[in-house]
Amino acid sequence: MAPRLEPLSLDECDELVRSLTTRSTSGEERALNIFTTLDRHPDLFRRWLALGGALLDGKLTARTRELVILRTAHLIDSNYEWSQHVPAAAAAGVDAAEIESLRDPLNVHSWLEADRVALEAADELHETFALSDETWETLSRHFDAPRLIELLMLVGFYHLVGLMISGLRIEIEAP
After folding, report:
1. Which CATH class is domain 56-168?
2. Are residues 72 and 59 in contact, defined by beta-carbon separation less than 8 angstroms?
3. Cβ 34 vs Cβ 45: under 8 Å
């Protein structure tokens, strides 16, 4: 399906988006479609980017963060976010088998306890929009207060991102 809003060209984007460009495998300079689409509302885009940046550079380990993002991307069927975060997860030390197992029920893979608890929390938040006292207690044994807050915000943020991507039909970039 075609995007509901065409991404802006780099020439149409503001300086912030132009500073976020990458090179495609063909050597072309480009920005991610999510950025060039959201730049149609620059004020909101900047605020969204600030929160996303804070979560990507927060107190959770990169491994925990990327596991939770990928699990959430799977749960909400966001192929866009999955494609964006698989390389980040690999860079954070998540191996290929672990990445693929995020698509399975959590009991299929032997997760480290802290990873399993974080992933169970992502599942529970997705399914019930809340956490049971039992899940909270288990999480609290592995994460301090700032990390607990960040974990919940991370799951909520990627639900927001997934809904936005789906609603706008933002396309995955060609390699």
Report:
1. mainly alpha
2. no
3. no
